[in-house]
């Protein structure tokens, strides 16, 4: 077993004990594969935007921007359940209770699979109605509908791939999700032009081919990941003899919903606010909508460091909460905020220096949208420094199960500040009111989050009630574990978790 002064070694599965070793390098090493995954996803989106916007026109790019905002909303709707499962798994690993982690994995997987199939079945026939409701420009509507229908078809594979990857990171394994995401992105990049333009034996599908390539790539990557988990006998893999773990356990489900829904509501609030912002932008015409869509491509890169560090902080803090290492939880928060300022600030500076050339990749030559995109970036881009602080500290706070205060803070920032400013100040500032609402609301969110982190009661929140130890002892090298016993046999402790009262 590694000594407390040295980082825990990677096991055969790539998992890591995040309760040991110096905090800064451990956090950075864990965050880098997550950051790499975010880079891959953004590059994938940018490559797709290049093919769509550069070859199919501004209306097609506007169509993908509208449809992708709906996809983000749908992912956000169940994001909280995945985060609750990830945090529970991380706390269980930190407390050396593998049985609990596997029970959470089984119930959560069943929930995600059922939710994904339901959303796909309902969403496909309603695609056009959803787009009309969000004021998609008329010239972009048929393209957006064709693209969105393919995205709904892809939802089951997207959901399950994202869920499995997140739970593995909760167990301390950030490397494996990165490698299989690399596979998914490579497949999507290759398939996109083949299906859009009908190259070789592939059918010419236009913008619908871009959406279909995403579904095929994620389906193949998910299948490969599951095969890998089985082949390596990963501790979280549920074998055929243990399939009863997929039967939802009421205690776990109550906990996932009680803690996950408020976290999911945070993503929904962000998504709905972005849709509201998009509606205001769409009302300014195709040029402004295209400029906003191109700027969003840059914004995905700018928020990547904060999102990666926040996700790493959440998993690392949750493992240390499970191990009752509160000194390390505080250290994780400090280093996370510092890394956010360093990495996000550097990226903002680089993008501002090269923004004309970068934005030109997503807009046709001579487009009036290019100058609009440069103008709005100069106002809004810096807001991601403030956003990063909120994201990192929220990741630490929710590692204990405190979920209601971050939800309230976000609601005030988005719907009490951003939307009213963007709408109410247009008579004075014109369209600039929309762009100024981003830094002002992000600054307010950061101030409220800092106050709650310093004086709030999040340290007293709990996901699980204290009590008897119900697992098997887990060595520090997670990957070395033998397969866990089935929880449901007569001689085993029941898998249901005893939830504390919601924070």
TrEMBL record:
Topological type in the membrane: Multi-pass membrane protein
A Pfam cross-reference name: MatE
Compartment(s) where it occurs, according to its Swiss-Prot or TrEMBL record: Cell inner membrane
Keyword Heme appears in the UniProt entry: no
Sequence intervals crossing the membrane: 70-91, 103-126, 146-168, 180-200, 212-231, 298-318, 339-359, 379-397, 404-421, 433-453
Key words of the record: Cell membrane, Membrane, Transmembrane, Transmembrane helix, Transport
Any one GO MF annotation of this record: xenobiotic transmembrane transporter activity
GO cellular component, one term: plasma membrane
InterPro entries associated with the record: MATE_fam, MdtK-like, Membrane_Transporter-Flippase
Keyword Transport in record: yes
Main localisation: membrane
Protein name: MATE family efflux transporter
The species this protein was found in: Pulveribacter suum
């Amino acid at each position: 077993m590694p000594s407390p002064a040295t980082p825990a070694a990677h096991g055969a599965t790539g998992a890591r004990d995040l309760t040991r070793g110096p905090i800064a390098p451990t956090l950075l090493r864990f965050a880098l594969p997550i950051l790499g995954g975010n880079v891959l996803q953004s590059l994938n989106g940018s490559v797709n935007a290049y093919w769509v916007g550069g070859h199919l026109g501004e209306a097609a790019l506007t169509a993908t921007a509208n449809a992708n905002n709906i996809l983000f909303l749908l992912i956000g709707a169940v994001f909280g359940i995945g985060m609750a499962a990830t945090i529970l798994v991380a706390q269980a690993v930190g407390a050396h209770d593998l049985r609990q982690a596997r029970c959470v994995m089984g119930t959560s997987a069943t929930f995600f699979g059922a939710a994904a199939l339901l959303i796909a079945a309902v969403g496909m026939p309603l695609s056009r109605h959803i787009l009309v409701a969000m004021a998609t420009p008329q010239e972009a509507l048929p393209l957006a509908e064709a693209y969105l229908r393919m995205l709904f078809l892809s939802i089951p594979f997207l959901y399950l791939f994202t869920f499995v990857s997140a739970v593995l990171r909760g167990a301390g394994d950030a490397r494996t999700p990165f490698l299989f995401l690399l596979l998914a992105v490579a497949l999507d990049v290759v398939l996109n032009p083949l299906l859009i333009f009908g190259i070789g034996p592939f059918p010419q599908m236009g913008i619908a081919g871009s959406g279909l390539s995403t579904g095929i790539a994620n389906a193949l990557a998910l299948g490969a990941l599951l095969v890998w988990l089985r082949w390596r006998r990963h501790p979280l893999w549920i074998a055929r003899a243990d399939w009863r773990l997929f039967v939802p356990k009421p205690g776990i489900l109550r906990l996932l919903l009680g803690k996950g829904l408020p976290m999911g509501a945070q993503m929904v609030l962000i998504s709905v606010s972005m849709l509201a912002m998009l509606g205001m932008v769409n009302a300014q015409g195709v040029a402004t909508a295209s400029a906003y869509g191109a700027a969003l491509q840059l914004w995905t890169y700018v928020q990547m460091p904060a999102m990666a560090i926040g996700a790493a902080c959440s998993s690392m803090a949750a493992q240390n909460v499970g191990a009752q290492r509160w000194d390390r939880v505080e250290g994780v928060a400090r280093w996370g905020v510092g890394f956010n300022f360093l990495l996000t600030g550097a990226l903002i500076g680089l993008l501002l220096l090269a923004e004309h050339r970068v934005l030109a990749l997503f807009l046709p030559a001579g487009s009036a949208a290019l100058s609009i995109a440069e103008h709005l970036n100069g106002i809004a881009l810096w807001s991601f420094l403030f956003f990063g602080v909120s994201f990192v500290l929220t990741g630490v706070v929710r590692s204990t199960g405190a979920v209601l205060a971050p939800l309230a803070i976000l609601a005030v920032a988005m719907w009490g500040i951003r939307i009213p400013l963007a709408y109410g100040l247009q008579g004075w500032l014109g369209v600039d009111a929309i762009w100024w609402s981003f830094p002002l609301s992000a600054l307010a969110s950061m101030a409220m989050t800092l106050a709650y982190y310093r004086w709030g009661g999040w340290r007293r929140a709990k996901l699980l009630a204290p009590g008897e130890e119900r697992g098997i002892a887990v060595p520090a090298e997670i990957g070395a574990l033998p397969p866990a016993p089935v929880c449901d046999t007569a001689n085993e402790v029941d898998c249901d978790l005893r939830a504390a009262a919601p924070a």
